[in-house]
Write a structure and sequence with these properties.
The protein has 11 helices and no strands. It is mainly alpha-helical. The termini are far apart.
């Protein structure tokens, strides 16, 4: 909706999101400064690296990708992250997938092929769509790396501290990037865009990040994908209603396959 309301760049949008949410994270970090255990230099390095990858990097790629793909399709691509968690765990943690998980991988990527099939017909528009889809997929990959690498650290240092500190760190590159690449006049935006950015910074950044970090602490990275199945479905519906984005029957079938596949990965056997 911000992109639709005015010409605003991903760099400016990310800058405003990070800056407006920063005071919340600074306040929480200050409040929890004496919590135990104390963070070691290695912990601080891990928090900084994960904040850069999982918050700044993933968000920036996602914001750029959304210029070329619709919100509904973009969320379905981003929703591949639980299967990417599975693959990362296989290749780097040597956790072999079960037959059910392998079947889930085939389902999710077959579903994604259906989702993007409407756009694969050549021409400049299709190339831009493919570029945007690749960026959103890269965002999902960075987010999956963050979930796998951050799961144990969150359990040890606490979800609120981890979120507050990593977001403070992640704000720095967003600020530097904006002041290097954008003029200050880029902030001369219509009031409606500022309203959207305030919502983006609070209800779509601060609250979800604390909630997801606590969920990671309680249930782990793989199971985290379970309730997340509601995400792409709700975005597909709201983007079709609020943004008039087309969502065909073929894409709906593909989305259903993605969601079923992710649920197969996420749900434990009773």
């Amino acid at each position: 909706m911000s992109y639709a309301a005015a010409p605003v760049s991903p760099i400016t949008l990310l800058f405003l999101r990070m800056v407006l949410s920063l005071p919340f994270f600074v306040a929480v970090g200050w409040w929890l400064r004496n919590e135990q255990p104390r963070l070691t230099p290695r912990d601080w390095a891990a928090v900084a690296g994960l904040g850069f990858i999982g918050y700044y990097g993933a968000s920036f790629l996602d914001f750029i990708g959304l210029q070329y793909v619709g919100a509904g399709v973009g969320r379905l691509i981003l929703f591949l992250y639980p299967t990417l968690v599975l693959l990362i765990s296989l290749f780097f943690l040597h956790r072999k997938p079960t037959r059910r998980q392998i079947g889930a991988l085939f389902l999710t990527y077959a579903g994604m092929a259906l989702v993007v099939s409407r756009q694969v017909h050549g021409g400049a528009e299709a190339r831009l769509f493919a570029f945007g889809a690749a960026l959103v997929f890269a965002s999902a990959l960075l987010y999956a790396v963050y979930l796998v690498a951050g799961g144990e650290l969150i359990k040890r240092v606490g979800s609120m501290r981890f979120t507050a500190y990593s977001m403070v760190v992640a704000t720095a590159p967003a600020l530097i990037q904006f002041f290097i690449l954008e003029p200050v006049s880029a902030l001369n935006l219509p009031g409606v865009v500022w309203l959207y950015v305030i919502v983006l910074a609070t209800f779509s950044t601060v609250l979800p990040l604390f909630l997801q970090a606590e969920a990671l602490r309680r249930i782990g990275a793989t199971e985290f994908g379970l309730i997340g199945a509601l995400g792409p479905v709700s975005v597909a519906v709201t983007s079709a209603i609020g943004l008039d984005e087309p969502f065909t029957g073929v894409q709906a079938m593909g989305g259903a396959l993605v969601i079923v596949g992710v649920l197969l990965v996420s749900l434990k056997r009773s």
